[in-house]
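TL;DR need structure tokens for one chain.
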Amino acid sequence: MALKPPEVDVCMPVYQEITDFEDFTGQTEAVKTIDIRARVTGYLKATHFKHGAEVKKGDLLFEIDPPYYEAEHARAEGVAAQAEARLKRLKLDYARAEENYSTRVITKAEFDQWSGDLAEAEANLKAAKASLKIATVNLGYCTIRAPIDGRLSRPAISDGNLVKADDTMLTTIVAQEPMWIYFDIDERTMLRLRRLVRSGYSDTAGDAHLPVLIGLADEEDYPHEGILDFEDNRLDPSTGTLRVRGEFSNADRLLRPGLFVRVRLPIGQPYQALLVPEQAVGTDQGQKFVYVVDSDNKVTYRRVKVGKLREGLRVIVDGITSGERIVTTGVQRVQPGMKVDAKLVEQIK
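>> reply
TL;DR here they are.
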């Protein structure tokens, strides 16, 4: 009694449009990160933001107690007014001296004295106005405002403490929109991109805005799309990698600086590729192969050249055609030349 041929599932390879890609690990970084420091020395009077709040450029953040700087500003105003009044008086005196000198009522030495006093008064007024400007600026520095739109950290110092000019850090602010993703690409990928650029695929990464995708730790795919807007000017000789950067919209505020992400970099234009289920591909001494079932239901061993894995499907670069039947299950039960009972399963989607 003849043995019944083993039953195996087979499928037909299909062509699908795909784009080659490389996967990397990246980390987010804010476009702008600023340490907020006081520009004048004084005691911190008040904090005007909620810890971790998102603020707009120009929003009030801190106040430094201003009485000393208000007094300095008032004194500088007084000195400037005094210098302006003296200059006005000396201009009138100079006009009279000029008239008297023309009629020989005063000597040249006396006229030179009036002329020198006028020039000195003009210089004093300039100095007084400069001092007033410095006092005005310092008084303005008593109110510390957000330099950019962004999210604040917590205050680094409590109200009532002494703040030193250009020294004491009050808090930090990071921009939220857009967000940068830095990652390192290997030499092979870099060279492939450069050759694509030379062939007319696109301009340089910094100008071309090549697409780049990212996925977060709790996401299955790569739903966020951005642009590649920067590449470093040299490779790291210790690792043989090139630092590149993608720019991503962060309107939903999912991204925060320092977040690790999965990066997918599409390379080249979409093309038609032949795909089979990954479980249909076997390995024999480092060589990839599949079992093909011919019209007589006989199994044929076929070496194949494979590409990347895409959602459970393996790209087949060479070795089979779309019209052939490929064994997908029961691979361990078949041998080359064996007859099988082939059951065609649902077409690959």
